[in-house]
Design goal:
heterodimer; A: alpha/beta; FAD/NAD(P)-binding domain; 3 domains; 7-stranded mixed β-sheet; 18 helices; 20 strands; B: Guanine Nucleotide Dissociation Inhibitor, domain 2; 19% strand
Chain lengths: 532, 526
């Protein structure tokens, strides 16, 4: 095929950020086309029937961080987004006891009191404090990072506003924030609690998706990042989308279509076509060329800068910086199709707790030991696992009486010291199932099908470089105006009309949609429009 | 003298005669204040002492050199100035394969030698050394300013920080961004960005984990690597031992009119209606003073000497969760001759700086893994010095003193007690070093081991923390020693007139003299 008709904008990648970005561009009247390499939209935000009758949230599995303004502005509820609450977390312990935290604060209090009444009381204060910290920094998620090196009055003003915002938090909050930005999640939590398995379970939020242990400084920030979730104005309310995580992508896609965007699957972009420093179109792997006024990449920084465009188009320092952008995945996923609901030996039976999360995090040292293995290129034999049963929350996910089990596993390093993931994949799956069986003795007999995803598999399937689920570590040196690279944190690139809108840009990973929306604001600004 | 002091009334009493306490005493005395320094031990210097642990052999038991000593402190010496020896070498790191890496004061020489190991590393070294110099330069400027406060800032202080902010911008867009990017990094990540050979990464990883209970991968270790280079690549050995710095400071302070008493252990800080009124010694003697500057660590100062009752609950909680986390021990050997290190045979000049056993960043990380779980590192990171190679006054003729800092030696052992581990530690260090210096065993005449517990008991370092509180990113600047302290004293309703003048205050540990100087300046304003 020869040259195709023109678009105002082409968005590369149909992940949730790409779709959000496209929806906003279409909403502003731009003729927008989304190109997704896979047969299904959503990227990591996808549900697939991997085994007949069983729908898996293959990669990302919980919703919480989605920006409320996006749900509102794109009318996602009208487009079918239904968030079912995921309210409890149970941590089974080797000694047969368990820690339970749920919507019924009295039950939570009673349970934690069995370990420490001090902690039971502290837990209320803690939740309250984190709620306030999350509210305090929420502002950051909704602004484009200023450029501190620029002397442009607009940038200086933005910096000033930022400074004023922080000072407005008040002394105590600023100290707490400073701690959250610099401490390890275990240290931060040990200032609140004394019960190790409680600290371990809470600190796990600080390691999810990162190559950090609960005792690594910086993990406290990731902890806060995971508290920024907001559903119907309720912070730290985790939820599960009806139909699985793919339900989120489908809602955004439906909204984007309704707004006039064209969404094309199985259209893999080979590279961005540039003419003297300007992006003018894309070339598909099938040879098609599609032209547009502007090209937006929702892919991770390594793909956006090192694969889609010719390095000679970019300044050397950016090529070097992106080359060193830290994006080695640390987590894997094991999805199981089950013949029935397994029993937790610490609390047998199909109770409320099976509709919540189950966390295999018996102690801080347990998680640290798992991390120690990963540091030297081995997957954890005794991993941290975060489990949910999507079919218990949304019966539509599996045939009646049967269940799907989603296991998020850490640590699984992208680069193995010995062998490769093709040879290690099943051994990794076995390690996970063996670990789970210690807490669910009848699990093995119930497994109908097992899907094991290593960081390498994640990279192969949905493209995420290094299999990093955040499109790059959420470390202080890769956040805000440093994400993905100094000087390029404002969604633009050195190539005119070429933009970025993925999780590799501020404010980073998770199903937030924020990068997609903030990028749209900048793109529309350049197009002389404003986001409605 | 006691009789005289008993009813004496001082403008300022300084608890602890470490180098920072003496700097503060000197500064205050020169400003005309009546000052009394009270040192618990029989000798001055605290963690910057030179002691004859073994007859005829004098060792630096704490700080090994004066690399970080600030210009403003040099300026204090008039009649009595310590003498410094500056060898051509900064560090030498022998490798398991019998080779070695050397960092010379002269970058060109360093790069030339690195080229034999890796051409790209030799090239990378230029850029790295440049960054290290520029970034550490900015850091040392920060170190010389009193930290600003969220609540009350004198215009002059704000102006000083604003000027510094402009200097940071002055680095230029790229360098400024890189500075902000590197500060919170893990040293291993930063080093990986520059170098390919394990040997050089391991060498710098050893500097990066000084006084921190973290491995080189941990955020904050790049900061420590910069901090350890605030004095440049220069190696500054003190003639007669590090204790000579404290000695000269003491002489200058006395000349300026300060009184100094050793063997005087403070039991309590006394207060009356919201103000400090003096101190009480172990023997019951009371000394009145308008101001008390404490060179003791913040834990000792506020929880032991002042007492929780005097603190607001939230402030008390902050001190209780102050992270001390001592992670180092030291072993001191009396040698009958100079050891020969593989990779430097016949080249003693290479041994005149820091001798570092840390063949790779992973080696250091694994050493930390042991400590994290409460064990002494099976394969520890070692920083050894043989000051007698440069200074014959430290040991009998043709004999030598070898002092080794060991990491990681966690203060809190999971399954043992330091009194039971002392000799095992000594043996481990000897075994480890002997792999790189085969003739070492035959040279050892005697040795002394100082465990983290000894550092607490003997030198008063709570938790064995050489830095008076771990220097992680969460315990720096406004958060040093804890959040809510303003200009080296507590804000809020805490008793007035008590200052931290030791490593627990900004900028932190090391033989800089800055906490003492800046705390004294603060005290003089009030």
């Amino acid at each position: 095929m020869a040259k195709q008709q023109e678009y105002d904008a082409i968005v590369i990648g149909g992940g949730h950020n790409g779709l959000v970005n496209a929806a906003y561009l279409a909403r502003a009247g731009l003729k927008t086309l989304v190109l997704e390499q896979r047969h299904v939209l959503g990227g990591a935000t996808v549900s697939e029937e991997i085994y007949p009758g069983f729908k898996f949230s293959v990669f990302s599995y919980v919703v919480s961080l989605m920006r409320p303004e996006i749900i509102r502005e794109l009318e996602l509820v009208r487009h079918g987004l239904t968030i079912l609450p995921l309210e409890s977390t149970i941590t089974p312990l080797p000694d047969g006891r368990y820690i339970y935290r749920g919507p019924d604060s009295a039950a939570t209090f009673r349970n934690i009191s069995q370990f420490s009444t001090r902690d039971a009381e502290a837990y209320r204060e803690y939740s309250y404090a984190m709620y306030h910290m999350a509210k305090a920094v929420k502002y950051i998620l909704s602004i484009r990072p200023p450029d501190p090196t620029s002397f442009d009055p607009r940038e200086l003003l933005a910096l000033l506003k930022l400074g004023k915002h922080f000072l407005s938090l008040g002394e105590e909050n600023i100290y707490t924030l400073a701690k959250l930005m610099t401490m390890s999640s275990a240290d931060f939590l040990e200032e609140w609690f004394e019960t190790d398995p409680l600290i371990a379970t809470l600190s796990a939020s600080g390691i999810i998706g990162t190559f950090l242990g609960p005792r690594s400084p910086g993990s406290a920030y990731v902890l806060l990042h995971h508290y920024m979730g907001e559903i119907d104005g309720v912070f730290r309310a985790w939820g599960f989308a009806r139909g699985g995580t793919g339900g989120v992508a489908e809602a955004i896609a439906s909204s984007a279509r309704a707004l006039g965007a064209e969404l094309r699957t199985e259209a893999r972009v080979a590279h961005v076509i540039t003419r003297n420093g300007r992006a003018v179109g894309v070339a598909l792997e099938n040879g098609d060329e599609i032209y547009a006024k502007r090209i937006i990449s929702s892919l991770d920084p390594k793909l956006t800068f090192l694969k889609l465009v010719d390095r000679s188009e970019l300044p050397d320092d950016l090529v070097a910086r992106v080359g060193k952008f830290d994006s080695y995945g640390s987590s894997g996923k094991v999805n199981l199709a089950l013949d029935g609901m397994p029993d937790l030996s610490c609390l047998p039976g199909y109770g409320e707790h099976m509709r919540g999360a189950i966390s295999i995090s018996p102690s801080v040292n347990y998680i640290e030991r798992a991390y120690d293995e990963a540091k030297y290129g081995r997957f954890a034999k005794k991993p941290y696992v975060d489990i949910i049963f999507p079919s218990a929350i949304d019966p539509g996910m599996a045939p009646p009486g049967k269940h799907v089990m989603s296991c998020f596993v850490q640590y699984a390093p992208y680069t193995l010291a010995e062998g490769d993931w093709n040879s290690q994949r099943e051994a990794f799956g076995d390690a996970v199932v063996d670990t789970l069986s210690e807490y669910m003795p009848n699990l093995k007999n119930l497994i109908l099908h097992r899907q094991v995803l290593s960081p390498w598999d994640i990279e192969q399937t949905i493209g995420l470089s290094g299999g990093n689920i955040f499109q790059g570590e959420l470390s202080l040196s890769q956040l805000f105006f440093l994400r993905p690279a100094p000087g390029y944190a404002q969604y633009r690139t050195p190539i005119t009309n070429y933009y970025q809108c993925g999780s590799g840009t501020h404010p980073g990973g998770g199903i937030t949609g924020a990068p997609g929306r903030l990028a749209a604001i900048e793109i529309l600004k350049d197009a002389g429009k404003v986001l409605q | 003298m006691n009789a005289a002091a008993m009813n004496a009334n001082y403008d300022a009493v300084i608890i602890g005669g470490g180098h920072n306490g003496l700097v503060a005493a000197l500064k205050l005395a020169r400003a005309g204040r009546s000052v009394l320094v009270l040192e618990r031990r029989t000798q001055l210097g605290g963690a910057a002492s030179t002691e004859e642990l073994i007859p005829g052999f004098r060792f630096n038991t704490g700080a090994p050199n004066a690399n970080l000593l600030a210009e403003q402190v040099f300026a204090l010496f008039r009649q009595h100035s310590p003498a410094f020896i500056m060898p051509a070498v900064r560090a030498f790191a022998p490798q398991p394969d019998g080779t070695g890496v050397t960092i010379w004061r002269d970058s060109e020489r360093t790069a030339m030698e690195l080229a034999q190991r890796s051409a790209s590393d030799a090239k990378a070294y230029w850029e790295f050394a440049r960054q290290l110099d520029r970034f550490a330069g900015v850091l040392s400027k920060m170190a010389q300013l009193r930290p600003p406060s969220l609540t009350q800032n004198p215009a002059r202080l704000l102006f000083a920080w604003a000027r510094l902010a402009l200097q940071v911008r002055g680095l230029g867009g790229k360098d400024m961004m890189d500075f902000m990017r590197v500060l919170p990094m893990g040293a291993a990540t930063w080093l990986n960005e520059h170098f390919e050979s394990d040997a050089i990464k391991g060498l710098y990883a050893a500097y990066a984990t000084t006084g921190i209970m973290q491995g080189p991968r941990a955020s904050g270790t790049a900061f420590m690597l910069l901090y350890q280079h605030m004095g440049g690549a220069l190696q500054r050995v003190v003639q007669g031992g590090v204790g000579a710095v404290s000695g000269s400071l003491a002489k200058e302070a006395k000349l300026a009119g300060a009184e100094i008493r050793t063997g005087a252990s403070v039991a309590r800080i006394l207060t009356t209606d919201g103000r400090v009124s003096g101190v009480e010694l172990e023997d019951g003697e009371r000394i009145t003073a308008r101001q008390v500057l404490s060179n003791a660590d913040p834990h000792t100062t506020f929880l032991k000497l002042l007492g929780p009752a005097q603190l607001e609950p939230r402030v008390y909680r902050r001190f209780r969760s102050l992270k001390l986390r001592g992670s180092s021990a030291s072993v001191h050997f009396a040698l009958s001759g100079a050891p020969q290190f593989l990779g430097a045979v016949g080249h003693q000049d290479q041994l005149q700086g820091d001798i570092i056993i840390s063949p790779s960043a992973d080696y250091a990380e694994q050493a930390y893994d042991d400590a994290k779980h409460g064990r002494l590192s099976a394969a520890p990171v070692l920083m050894a010095r043989i000051p007698s190679l440069l200074d014959s006054t430290l040991a009998p003729a043709r004999k030598h003193t070898l002092s080794v800092t060991v990491r990681y030696a966690p203060y809190a052992l999971a399954e043992s007690h330091w009194d039971a581990e002392r000799e095992r530690l000594g043996d481990l260090v000897l075994e480890t070093l002997a792999e790189y210096a085969p003739n070492l065993r035959t040279l050892v005449e005697d040795r002394r081991v100082i465990t983290p517990l000894d550092y607490e008991r003997e030198y008063g370092l709570s938790g064995g923390s050489e830095m008076h509180g771990q220097m992680g990113l969460d315990q720096l600047l406004l958060q040093r020693p804890v959040a809510g302290n303003v200009g080296y004293r507590l804000g809020g309703h805490a008793p007035r007139g008590i200052y931290i003048c030791g490593a627990g205050g900004h900028p932190g540990g090391g033989l800089t003299g800055l906490p003492g100087l800046l705390a004294a300046e603060q005290a003089l304003k009030e």
